[in-house]
Amino acid sequence: MQIPLSVMDFLDRAELVYGDRVGIVDEPVQPAESWGELSYRRIAGLARAQAAGLDRLGVGPGERVAIVSHNSARLLTSFFGVSGYGRVLVPVNFRLKAEEVSYIVEQSGASVLLVDPEVADALSGVAAEHKFVLGADSDAVLYDGDHAPRRYAVSENDTATINYTSGTTARPKGVQLTHRNIWLNATLMGLHYGANDRDVYLHTLPMFHANGWGIPFSLTGLGARHIVLRKVDGAEILRRVERHGVTFLSGAPAVVQMVLDAAADWDGPVPGRDRVRMIVAGAPPPTSVVQQVEERLGWEFMQLYGLTETSPIVTVNRSRAEWDALPAAERAEKLVQAGSPALGTQLRVDDQGEVLVRSNTVLAGYWRQPEATAEALRDDWFHTGDGGTLEDGRLTISDRKKDVIISGGENVSSIEVEDCLYSHPAVAEAAVIGVPHEKWGETVKALVVLREGHEGVTEAELIAHCKHRLAGFKSPTTVEIRDTLPRTATGKLQKFRLREPYWTGRERQVN
To answer: Which of 27, 176, 177, 171 is nearest to 96 (CA)?
Structure first.
């Protein structure tokens, strides 16, 4: 027997098994009217009403529904009310400019556009056949509770969501994730990170970002409670952890740092000690951060390596029983590795040092971009664009391929140098790039943002700090102090912009 996998499976089970349980606690203070506390039975009813509303609008199966929203119960429900009933959800980064959102709406061919009230004015010029500002007024139109929705036949290989990558040098590409991709990713996330029906999950991670890494699906299917957090703030995260008994959250290293900074000023014991586990992804965090999570917060640090194109799970890293007796610093060194392949995932590193992936969670393709799809999936492997090494089944990400610095014939991982800089108490942010050098071809340059109160730290001091810990060829030859570092709308460092002034006028971006 073979039954097609569908994202709706997760909510169907939650309604059946946990119908009376509170499933979502919506953000209480937001521009749209909060939905408050919702049982899983109520969430399932709202998903049906949303699907019936799309029926009423004439939005058929396979049509795209774009939503530009901060974390909210409306967005979480749309994963089921849209994708679960045969349409395709297009979750859009709410930090994007109007021109960027227009491109996504047009490129995806979305016939419906749902917009958070906070960005409604900024996106007033973005057009769609059906456009609504989220809130009580649009709820009356979008949710038809009087009629049963059509439940179109869904193949597990149908596209469920199109998630646009935050392109740094070109237009973003629409990643087509199928029901099968999402179902298996959600199941793997729950399996590897030990999710269960006692979990209380705090949505610090934007739900638009690779569908919240698939966690909205897995935790719904397991009957866990979702706590919606609209805007990330370290102190507010700690307050929600304390108020709601949070056990589980996710985020980038920058979110971890916000929590650590807030914990330093927290009055009393830090909430969640010996209870909270946190998945960190987006970049290999400094080892010092891992130690602080375990020692200062008392939270379990876990790492994920993945991409939007892989739904996103590729590798998993959690502390093992064999590591329990290790000194904290040694355990941290192991935990900053990307980790081991998730169940059913194959990895290899090619001759150029690029990480390649084969998995059931790898995208079906880039929406309406067959050439980009063929390039990314050539030779039946997904080409990540990341450089790394595999040893004893464990992956270490060394860098984006284009960010590896070759100085005097030696490869330098900018991540390793950045990790060293982050271990200096004065460094808040660090980016390491290669710049042209007459003798060595390239040399290592660091751009650093200092912490408040450490403005007196000098270039020479930071270079000496690195030379004390790294080989000479890896240490920066120059350090430039900056007020800020350029990032994309999803927080990724834009190294191409940092490199640009030093390479202008040269044919190649390596030397």
So the answer is: 171
Residue with tokens 């502390």: 319
User: Which CA distances in Å does 255 have to 112, 237, 249, 285, 289?
Assistant: 32, 10, 10, 11, 11
Instruction: Determine the residue type at 128.
Output: A
H/E stretch holding 123 reads none
How far apart are the C-alpha atoms of 257 and 317, rounded to whole Å?
19
Residues 479 and 495 in one domain: yes
* Average pLDDT over every residue of 271-294: 91
Same domain, 413 and 384: no
pLDDT in tens, 354-366: 999 999 999 999 9
Record the tokens describing residue 11, joined without a space.
Answer: 């909510």
Give the structural domain span for 378. Answer: 346-400
The pLDDT of 82-101, averaged and rounded, is 93
Only one residue has tokens 């019936």, namely 52
Task: Locate 126 and state its tokens.
Answer: 């973005």
Q: Are residues 475 and 427 in the same domain?
A: yes
d(CA 329, CA 336) in angstroms, rounded, equals 11
Whole-angstrom Cα distance, residue 417 to residue 459? 15
Question: Please, what is the end-to-end C-alpha distance for the chain in angstroms?
Answer: 58
Total count of domains within the chain:
2
